[in-house]
Write a structure and sequence with these properties.
four-stranded mixed sheet, about 35% strand, about 120 residues, 2 helices
């Protein structure tokens, strides 16, 4: 079974789209609308994230989207890239055999980047 899509309600569609495209390699879905109120993005496995503007975001405390990296060094590199782009992010830390960091996105949800230690 393959994940088809995730629908995200966000407070800032353009900033969320920029984050996904510039730092996580997502691309605009062909033939789908793209504006300040909604857009549709594909990852490299062709899973879809639909992004819709909402006035208030109220995800449960444990909700987040996680991105796996192949190595701990890639986690450190991603952290450095995001901090250089202006995001405020705690340093990566070790947790149960993996290196990880979480951060609040401009759209109002949490992202995690992680890798298991070899």
């Amino acid at each position: 079974m393959k994940l088809n899509h995730i629908n995200l309600g966000v407070t800032d569609v353009p900033a969320t789209v920029a984050l996904f495209e510039q730092h996580f390699g997502f691309r605009q879905a062909d033939g789908m609308p793209r504006n300040d109120h909604m857009t549709f993005l594909y990852d490299d496995a062709d899973s879809l994230i639909s992004v819709f503007k909402v006035k208030d975001v109220a995800y449960p405390k444990v909700f987040h989207i996680g991105f796996m990296q192949d190595t701990p060094q890639q986690v450190r590199d991603m952290h450095r890239q995001l901090v250089s782009a202006g995001f405020t992010i705690p340093e990566p830390h070790e947790n149960n055999g993996r290196l990880t960091f979480y951060f609040d996105t401009p759209g109002g949800f949490v992202l995690e980047v992680e890798s298991f230690f070899g």
